[in-house]
Design a protein that fits this description.
Blueprint: H1 2-10, H2 17-24, E1 27-32, E2 37-39, E3 47-53, E4 56-61, E5 67-73, E6 78-79, H3 82-87, E7 94-97, E8 101-107, H4 108-117, H5 119-145, H6 148-158, H7 168-175, H8 179-186
Antiparallel strand pairs: 1-8, 2-7, 3-6, 3-8, 4-5, 4-7
Helix pairs in contact: 4-5, 7-8
Length: 187
């Protein structure tokens, strides 16, 4: 399991065995079952999560009771309610397991400590943050510029295996369309 995290860091930075062991000592490994919460709206956000195995979703429920899915995170992705994590406030989002999940959990205090002590780790997280900003901008622009059919096609192109791992109701929520509209696209 540790090898998964080692390979993930290795995509952006080169670490000695000692450096990686030190970094690893700052993480907690946890397993969650399908439907369990990693983060629950209104609760403190203790960790940033690296998904080693499984699939999770970040969502919020609107005033009308409808779920709005902001993000999915599968293997090799990071997820948290970042506003709450970095500002140490209560979560605005729920992060729920779509499948059984194994995650590496990193507290903000340990993240700050690692970044202060190891320039390479700070570089790694800066690169990961930049990638996240780019993905968020791409998603917002897609929602603003593309119709539902184009957003669906883009989702299938960018994340080809995702449609086999989530129910159509979740895909519809992510795309901002009804389940019936999504059925017309996928038939």
């Amino acid at each position: 399991m540790d090898l998964i995290l080692r390979e993930h860091f290795g995509k952006l930075i080169t670490l000695s065995d000692e450096e990686f062991s030190y970094i690893l000592s700052h993480f907690v490994v946890r397993k969650f079952r399908k439907h369990q919460f990693l983060v629950q709206q209104g609760s403190p956000v203790l960790y940033d999560y690296f998904v080693a195995h499984g699939l999770v979703k970040a969502s919020m429920t609107g005033q009308e009771g409808k779920e709005h899915i902001l993000q999915f995170a599968m293997e090799d992705w990071w997820i948290s309610d970042y506003q709450a994590y970095f500002n140490q406030t209560d979560a605005a989002l729920d992060i729920t397991c779509v499948e059984d999940v194994q995650v590496f959990c990193l507290s903000l205090a340990n993240r700050e400590k690692l970044c202060a002590e190891l320039h390479l780790v700070e570089h790694f997280f800066r690169k990961k943050s930049n990638s996240g900003y780019i993905a968020l901008q791409r998603r917002i622009l897609s929602l603003m510029q593309n119709n539902a059919q184009a957003r669906y096609s883009e989702l299938l192109r960018l994340y080809p295996g995702l449609s086999k791992r989530i129910p159509k109701t979740m895909m519809a929520s992510y795309l901002g369309v009804s389940r019936e509209t999504l059925s017309r696209f996928s038939s």
